[in-house]
Amino acid sequence: MKWCRFQTADGPSYGIIEGDNVIQVSGDPIRGTYERTSNSQPLSDARLLVPVIPPTFYAAGINFREHVAEMAAKRGEEPQYPDAADVGYRANNALVADGEAIVVPSDAHEQLQYEGELVVIIGKQCRNVSEEEALDYVFGYTIGNDVSERHWQRNDRTMWRGKNADTFKPMGPWIVTDGVDPEDCEVRIVLNGKFISKYNMSGAIFGVKHYISRMSKYLTLYPGDVIWMGTDGAPENMKHGDVINIEVDGIGTLSNPVVWEK
Amino acid sequence: MKWCRFQTADGPSYGIIEGDNVIQVSGDPIRGTYERTSNSQPLSDARLLVPVIPPTFYAAGINFREHVAEMAAKRGEEPQYPDAADVGYRANNALVADGEAIVVPSDAHEQLQYEGELVVIIGKQCRNVSEEEALDYVFGYTIGNDVSERHWQRNDRTMWRGKNADTFKPMGPWIVTDGVDPEDCEVRIVLNGKFISKYNMSGAIFGVKHYISRMSKYLTLYPGDVIWMGTDGAPENMKHGDVINIEVDGIGTLSNPVVWEK
Asked: How would you classify the pairing of strands B48-49 and B2-8?
């Protein structure tokens, strides 16, 4: 199934995408139960929202060897690969939906970069799950753009504005529950209509199953929690007026314009 | 006013604490409106819950000079003081209420420590607020215990289990909206009934007003967001069977037993 969250006259609602239409549902398909309503509209008319507001927003961060090596080379340093799947955090204030602008603070520096990522959405509460059963607790998958201002990322003590300024976390456009292999799917970067790079999730240092299993040894994962799986390669800078698309096999395209505040 | 969140037969509810009683309200006093109901019960009979589940869970972290110096000395390192109010994150999975156990994973190391902290709860959405107007956006204050497993904190790449294992973030017991000066109140640590240490919020490197103002330059704060303000001093280790109390002037006492998993 393909799920979206979209704006209605009565507020946000979940919807099922079938062909070119959105069928509104009542309830919450991720955290509870839902029922189809008789309301439907063309997908092209729907104002899509961030597909889920997570109780906790996890990010695998450094999880691809080439990304680690290329980013270290840019800084003139030796690469340091993680030796364990230590998950980090991002912040809900920064979430924006497909199509919404990445609004860059006026004092941001030139190295403002995309990071195209697969996003895992948890569907069932779990603690202490094995790698073999980990995917049974997944609701579905969407796409994230872990927008990063590298000067702040390097020089601030934390990721608060380098990664989590308002609008720095586009996520969407929708959630796909079937047909995505989270450990073998391709992620492609397209900037202003031009193909830039691609990578496959099979290159991850630690895969989705491993992350879920290891995290659940110490913490409870809840329905709606998201895990952003990290990115590969060395991203390019984004400028005012750019449009950045992240494509993931079996999911679709997350597209956002870049607006630099004056 | 003194607000709590407590368990009822119909699920969690907010309540007003007046004297020794809790008056149940409908609605949400932090995010919307509320009405008093005719239900009340003795506070001593109420099962208190975490007083707010934050959309984003901020933590000021390193924010007191003595804490920085003493923790560095323990590691045999030179202290490094932060030169800006860079806020970090904690995770909702780790929250527990007053009275609930801090359950320590069986493979945790000996240096399992409390950090008693003032917690700020945002009451109104804000962006770009001055220090002068910052407190106008605060709903109230509560108490947090930023439980930390120092071996994991030092050796993992992130704070995920060193700070955010399930039950490592006691918060409560309630929220006080008046009579607390967040930049001049005393925080006291009492372990197993014995006074251990105290500090005053006036010793913070960056105060509440400064944090709110600086954060809001880059991000929107939302009703229910919490900011844990950091701790002073050098905490002691906690063992199985300990009871750790954090007292804050004008708020009350957050008390939690420590249970080490076998």
From this structure: antiparallel
Find the closest chain A residue to B54 by CA distance.
A55
Contacting residues of B for A91, CB less than 8 Å apart: 56, 89, 219
Question: Are the beta carbons of B158 and A61 closer than 8 angstroms?
Answer: yes
For A129-172, write each residue's pLDDT tens digit.
999 999 999 999 999 999 999 999 999 999 999 999 999 999 99
| pLDDT tens string B186-212 | 999 999 999 999 999 999 999 999 999
Q: What are phi and psi of A77, to 5 degrees?
A: -120, 165
Q: Is the pTM of this model over 0.90?
A: yes
Token pair 């959309």 is at which residue?
A: B55
* b/e burial code for range B43-61 (CB count within 10 A of at least 16 → b): beebebbbbbebbbbbbbb
Mutation site, A158, A213, A216, interface B, largest B CB count within 10 A = A158
Contacts of A84 in chain B (CB under 8 A): 156-157
**Residues B242/B193, Cβ–Cβ less than 8 Å:** no
* Window 151-210 of B, Cβ < 8 Å to A: 156-161, 164-166
Kindly state the tokens that stand for A104: 């860059």
Complex prediction ipTM = 0.95
* Residues paired with A204 in a beta bridge: A64
Does A261 touch chain B if contact means CB atoms closer than 8 Å?
no
Residues of A in contact with B159 (CB under 8 A): 89
Inter-chain CB proximity A157 and B84 less than 8 Å: yes
Neighbours of A80 (CB within 10 A): 11
